[in-house]
Amino acid sequence: MRVTFMGESGRGVAGGAKPFMGARMLLCHSLLTVLLIAVTASPFNNTRPGCPATCGDVSIPYPFGIGPDCSLPGFNLSCNDNASGVKKPFIYNVELINISLLPAQARVYNYISWQCYNHTSNDMSYSTWRLNFTAYPYRFSDADNKFTVVGCHTLAYITGQNQKDSYAGGCVTVCGSSESLTNGSCSGIGCCQTSIPKGINYYKVSFNRNFNNSRVWKFNPCSYAVLAEADWFKFSTTYIKTRQLNETNGGRAPIVLDWAIGNETCEVAKRNTTSYACLSEHSDCFNSSNGPGYICNCSRGYQGNAYLPNGCQDIDECTLKDEYPCHGTCTNIPGDYNCTCPPGTNGDAKKGTCQGSRSNPFSSVKLVIGIVTSTSFALLLLLCIVLSLVREKRKLMRIKEEYFRRHGGRLLLEEIKSKQGLAFKVYTKGELEQATNNFDKNRILGGGGHGTVYKGILNDNHAVAIKKSKIIDDYQKKEFGKEMVILSQINHKNVVKLLGCCLEVEVPMLVYEFVSNGTLFQYIHDRNRTSHISLDTRLEIASQSAEALAYLHSSASPPIIHGDVKSSNILLDDNHNAKVSDFGASMLVPKDETQFATLVQGTCGYLDPEYLQTCQLTDKSDVYSFGVVLLELLTGKKAFYFEGSDEERSLSSSFLSAMKEERLLQLLDNHIKNEEDMELVQEIAELARRCLNVMGEDRPTMKEVADDLDRLRKFKQHPFLQHNTEEIENLLGEPSSYTENEISGCYSIEKKAAMDIEYGR
Fold first, then answer.
1. Where in this chain does the record put each EGF-like domain (predicted)?
2. What is the mean pLDDT of each run of 10 residues along the chain (761 residues)?
3. Which DSSP string corresponds to 250-268?
4. Which residues are catalytic?
5. Which residue in 129, 151, 156, 174 sits closest to 221, CA to CA?
6. Helix (H) or strand (E) run with residue 406 in it
7. Which candidate, 40, 191, 70, 203, places its Cα nearest to that of 130?
């Protein structure tokens, strides 16, 4: 077994890894190490007999160990000198910072990937790293780590895998100027962070070198990317303006690993007494919450190391009065303690209510006074609670009213009254909580960076989809009510109908019609689907989706830019009719340039490259994204996938290369490689290529795309346009003397004439 900790570097093709992390973090780590040593310096044995208990200043608790027979399989460590000549434990070649038995975690150092640009020599140097724990019982903690990217106009990818599946993600940063950067803010301006899924045990970093920050911004020499402990990183503007991130601590950052014993559940592991790891008599087994395997812990009332025989020892609660209070006589027992009132008294000694039991002349009077006092106090307390509840309720109502006013609720209600017949409702927060069973996670239909969509059942048993967004900017708050009126009037059979909204919350919630058959993404990429998708169905879905987007661009008043066109935002009903969704209020055509940079975040694989350079969202941005959807329909591949080189992992890049090299056939879905339809498929592919032009002005409008797809759809539906040599000869009534090439030529002329008649040309 081995851990792979590798870097890839180049300057034009050259470079190397450099340091990361400041003196402040080193001080924190030193203090943490001292605390860990203090904790482990207990009378309880923490290692196997004859095995080192520490390496340098790091405690090594079993099941970890250094040397033969000192650890469980997969937990063997080595104790070597680090780069500073200090003894440290290593997991193969990865330096270990500390180990925690509960929670079952370890912290190690991880190298930072970077790319730098030299304006004097026009040289690019870079270093990218990957970390591989597939042969070890470790997973990168999804709760404690984040993928962090620092730089201007930087796009970095993270790819990884767990025992069942592969994963890819990314983060993109932009900078308007050096003044636009803010210390502590990591929301896309100079710094970006994203989460990782559960159970990843391998990851690799790569940069998209078409997004080079330093060539554009001379104040930003380098960009960085790393999977690291979330609490460790605090963004500083000096990271953008200097090379500070690769000049400290050996170019490393801490990363948190979850670990577990084996791949079995507790129930299965207990059956094999020779390999079961919870050896202490007073220990309990817990299934790991971060992947396969299990962990051990001492039972209640015991402490120590549950992985060692007799490792869990009884706690003497009587010596720990702060944790285990006793206002009487304390007696320690195995796993617990007894606390009794002193002789001549009774009550609860743990709560300190021991009282004398001897009778005296004043006992009745004291009893009455006690009862009256207690009753008065209880009534006073009850009154205070009632007043507090009334106050909190009024406060909550004021907050709801303020949110309602801030989001333009009064204007919205006036507009609804003035527009008779408008089927739009303003819901209360309580109505939507009841419809979703308090937003139960089992009601989740989908989600992403912008928010989560839940299935709701209203009081009239009508099913709806409720979108609970995560954030809304100040401009949208002011215009929200007015924009809701505009969006509620959108009426197109291929656009999901907006039925209403809830304004009495900090971020307004939207209520849409419910579409029952999932998303186009699921329909194309579902591995469990047994039947193939015909070219007719693909063309019908593409045509309907294009018509919906063309309607939003051209017929809505004012026009609406979708801003996040992708296959997961195209829903399908039971008849596979397409309905474009998630065209929220943030996508109205901007009225001034100040709105451009905040309108949309987009989705990796569908982003318009021109938008990333200019931060100006246009209707041609939707055209580019729709071109990627067309490619998904033609190829059956995802917008971002693992095949190909590091520079060609996006479907659009692979497609454009295939078109240029005349190898489109290799990329197509096997189910549409039909010789009859290849001419039609070629036309669809050419339309997709036009949509993917780098320059927006060279792309067709969405109306032109819809018209072209409608023309191709109608052509596919006319069987008399399907050329068949034998059928033509039968229609002529006698054997034809024409050659097959001549018949094909006649067919091409006939097809063009039929299409001209169909469309009035």
1. 314-355
2. 54 36 39 38 72 94 94 94 90 93 92 84 83 91 94 90 85 83 88 92 89 66 91 88 79 94 93 93 92 93 93 93 90 93 87 72 69 89 89 79 73 67 80 93 78 90 87 59 74 89 85 90 82 90 96 87 90 93 56 44 79 85 95 91 61 90 90 84 94 93 95 77 43 37 35 37 39
3. GGEEEEEEEE-BSSS-HHH
4. 564
5. 151
6. helix 363-406
7. 203
